[in-house]
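Before a colleague's protein record goes any further, I have to sign it off. What it holds is a sequence and that sequence's fold in token form. My question to you is simply how this chain folds and whether the tokens agree. Thanks in advance; the entry in question is below:
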Amino acid sequence: MAVPKVDGQFIAEAIKYIDENGVPWHNTSTKYELVWENGNTYPPKYVIAVANHLQNGAEIDVSGYNAVEAKNYLTAKEYEIQIKQTKYEITITSDSVTSTDDSFTMDNISAGDVFKPLDVSFVAVDGTVIKRNYGKGERRNTNQTLPRIAFQIYEKQIAALPVEEKEQFPICQYAPDKEMIRGIYYSKDEAKAHNINPFSTMSYDYDDGRQFVIYSWNIFTTLRFVQECLTRFGNPGDSFKLVYREKDEKENAEEEAVKPAEFNGYLNPYSTMLVESKNIIFRGAPGTGKTYLAKEIATDIISNGYFDDYTMLTDEQKQQVEFVQFHPSYDYSDFVEGLRPKTNEDGSMGFELQDGVFKKFVDKARRNYENSKKSTEVIANELSVQEAMKEFFDDVDTGNNTFKTKTGTEFTITDVDDEHIYLSIPQNASINSIRLNISEIRQMLESGREFNKLKDITEFFNINFTQQRYSYNLVIFNEIQKKKKAAKIISQEELKKYVFIIDEINRGEISKIFGELFFAVDPGYRGVAGEVSTQYANLHADSNEKFYIPDNVYIIGTMNDIDRSVDSFDFAMRRRFRFVELRADERLEMLANLNNEEKEAEAIARMSALNVEIAATEGLNENYQIGASYFLKLKNIDFDQLWSDYLHPLLQEYINGMYDEEGIMERFKKAYNQGKLDGADVDESN
């Protein structure tokens, strides 16, 4: 008797049945446990037997299958199965922190890295038990659940603390000889300013948009914080309970910090604007930090609102961001696709079709988008095919391994690239070489069908005639099929966001670069509704292949309004982008990177005075004002050098050809120097 087939709703009903009736002693599990949504565990064999009874009316009988079969059956249905382990419970009071695990000690909080939380609760002195009120989208039982319930219980008291007390609030001390980590902050940026890595923090939302942010890493790192809350705000006898277990090998291998515990909203308001609009162009004066802002937004979105420093993205996450800069020579072949020179095997020159940077990036996002919609079984099968193909081509000694078609024609594989397999056919007098489309062979393998003759292939591709390459496809298919292994059980692919940044977008000839993609870029035609044939579609392996931009692609452009390298921005593109103006005084927070409050204040004063004079000059306007990023150069030079080497040449170019150039420049310099702090030296030359 195999494991009986049961539906998910009856597994849920079985859990309720077991909660009400218990598990007979002889049906308890000795090795595996099914972990349910509430954190409770159940014997897998008995759960299936009860579900079979409820769905099919069968007797509750576990004798027809073993524990491993039951475990594999439930795992395939994406239920969480763990090896049966001992649960531990920590009790936190204002006076002590104790655990049922004899090895636990507050002198080594780093030991929490190897444990997984199962449940948390607050127990009042009168016996009242309070559980965590989970927010929308909040994951259950993470390393952050314990501090969150402490905030939940004492939210008003913590909010009422003076700023100084919040900043000195004890959070974590890894060992007695280690420094105490302190601070309850109002944002991740403020925590970062106090040398707390935003990557290792947790946020708690309260009071319509406000936040508490504290350090939080493993399951034990906020025990000191919770105890301090009890000491300051609790009643004698109040306590918190934390139930946990040791992680299994798989859980230990995962780096939980790579992904945020939950989504609490984006750090940057422009991030939400981009997600809503799909396409945004930031326009404004030079130096307003448009490019820097674009990278901040991309990081904010990719990290799911966890941080906005691009350098903190993992290598894998950085693959979700692409950056290009347009210029007058940039064209369709650079951006979408085009013919590129290639040296053939015989030394002659030829051309091959290659994807441009945007098409490559969109294809990557499209694969993720399509895979996220596929079932785990389909993804597992595709992965099995991919591994079999890799093993086959790794084993092939190009030019030496000889294969034979059903008609006896011998051939060898001479080369393989991402799209084609190149064959040499010495016995063929008319055509001694041919290339096969890898995509066709992959489709055949992923179909799960048998291909024994050429007719099977023509029927599969729905064509009425046999092409010469199909006889070779059949041989390669059968060789790879021998290496295909059973599909592994995997989890469904997560849908990710991809951000494409185009710096100085108005310096390129937009209509020439985008071509027919005008239609696909439109936010209203994302997905297959906006699919188009590209200019070189007839050269694709599948000439009917269409190109579309999936919903998980977001485009940011930047442009200086005063840049005249391209006279006009294509109106067809204008209506497909949301234009956001950045004024010169909107990104002053960048100057905090000077790490010098006095210099920062002087930079703001000088910039403001200069920009007032620029806007008041006939023939100029606010688009010619100077942004804060110019003043970041003060990290390495002084104010006089900034004027002589950067601002003076730029402003001189602005007014070139105007009446009284010398007088205008004098007024600019005077305004610039009006912002100096008292006692600062002023160089009146230049």
User: Anything to note?
Assistant: The longest helix spans residues 376-395. The chain has a mean pLDDT of 86. Residues 94 and 231 are 5 Å apart (CA to CA).
